[in-house]
Amino acid sequence: MNRINQVNNINKTNNINAIKPKELRRAEFKSKFEKIKSEQVREHLKNIYDKIVEQSDKIGEKLYLKDLIEYKKLVREFLNVAVNNSHVFSQQNFLDRRGRHRVYGIVKNVDRELSALTREFLNEEVDRLSIIKKLDGIKGMLLDVFM
């Protein structure tokens, strides 16, 4: 009977040790997945940025409405991808000293390089964006007159 208990204890010990490597493998997979996702996002942003530069050169040569609309679309896409992938929202629940429930929402900057790239892009494109803003204002006024 004593020998059977020893065998049962060995099996329980092996099961406990088998769980830890699974957790480690999940953590490793998650970190690799995040790295691959980050690289794909950077590559996508680089492609969009190259298209924006090409489009801004077209606008610099001659200002056509079609080119301006495409430029706005590319800028919107660039900013959308950059903002959605550079910050993570997390929520923390806890009790304060008086026992009251507190909820804090925290926005963490995940990729500082991505944020820096976005800031640099905005600084370079301020002049063109102001032109687009003025054109949108004129378009709005024309629609008001038309209606």
Shape: elongated
CATH topology label: Four Helix Bundle (Hemerythrin (Met), subunit A)
The Rg value, from CA coordinates, equals 27 Å
Please report the total strand number as a whole number.
2
Helix content: over 70%
The name of the CATH architecture is: Up-down Bundle
Query: What's the tally of helices?
Result: 4
Structural class: alpha+beta
Distance between the termini: 94 Å
Protein name: DUF327 domain-containing protein
Pfam families: DUF327
InterPro entries: DUF327 (IPR005585), TM1646-like_dom_sf (IPR024042)
What does this structure look like?
- The chain has 147 residues and is α+β, with helices and mostly antiparallel strands.
- It has a single domain, classed as Four Helix Bundle (Hemerythrin (Met), subunit A).
- Helix content is 79%, strand content 12%.
- It has helices at 2-61, 65-86, 112-124, 126-146, and strands spanning 87-95, 101-109.
- A two-stranded antiparallel ribbon has the order 1-2.
- Helix 1 packs antiparallel against helix 2 (65-86) and helix 2 packs antiparallel against helix 3.
- The model has no long low-confidence stretch (mean pLDDT 72).
Give a summary of the structure in a few sentences.
InterPro entries: DUF327, TM1646-like_dom_sf. With 147 residues, the chain is an alpha+beta fold.
